[in-house]
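To fix ideas, we quote verbatim a fold written out as tokens:
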Amino acid sequence: MMQAKISVEVFFDFICPWCLIGKRQLHAAIEKLKQTHPQIQVAIKWRGVQLLPSIPVDGIPFKAFYLQRLGTTTAVRMRQEQVRQAAKAVGVDIDFERIPRMPNTAKAHSLLSNALQLAAPSQYDLLLEGIFSAYFHHSENISDPAVLQKIATYCGYAEAPIKALLDEPNTPFISVNTGGKGVPYFVFDGAFALAGAQPAAMLYQALLEAFEAQGAEV
């Protein structure tokens, strides 16, 4: 059986719950693909997007941010409940009441974008999950280098190179632009894209279409 490879670029930000939901949906789609088309390998490339680059380095109060953004406490409650239900459907529990601050994500993106050269891809995914979890599940401030150091160490990274990355004031990180499409934003083989936290079934279909586009038979 001939092996095939599909690349998926995922544009995301750590503060976006739909990105965490989209990550779960994508992995569910890939698991289904493994069952139906085991000859296809999927390579995921995570592309950091800083949605709110103007937020101060130490972040801003979470509740105040959303109140200003949506206008009323009712609007905030309705939006958060919508997200909670979508997250619950993919096995993710998000408690917005426990999150104290909306962080600046530049440092977290810098860490992730440079971490791939320090360890195996499996550790990279652990780090990605760890940062998401620290923010949405443990209410930690992911703009704090000490928090990021703790996460990376827990994920098995050597302490010294991570500290060196975090100590750099301008660690290379390019915040990419999705052309107003927002995040999450999925690009398949550089050819076509899906915007938003799409259902696993739709992402699975997109993977098959990318496979077909390579001239292969499904």
User: Anything to note?
Assistant: The chain has three domains: 1-49+176-218, 60-102, 105-174. The chain has a mean pLDDT of 90. The longest strand covers residues 4-12. The CA atoms of residues 94 and 136 lie 6 Å apart.
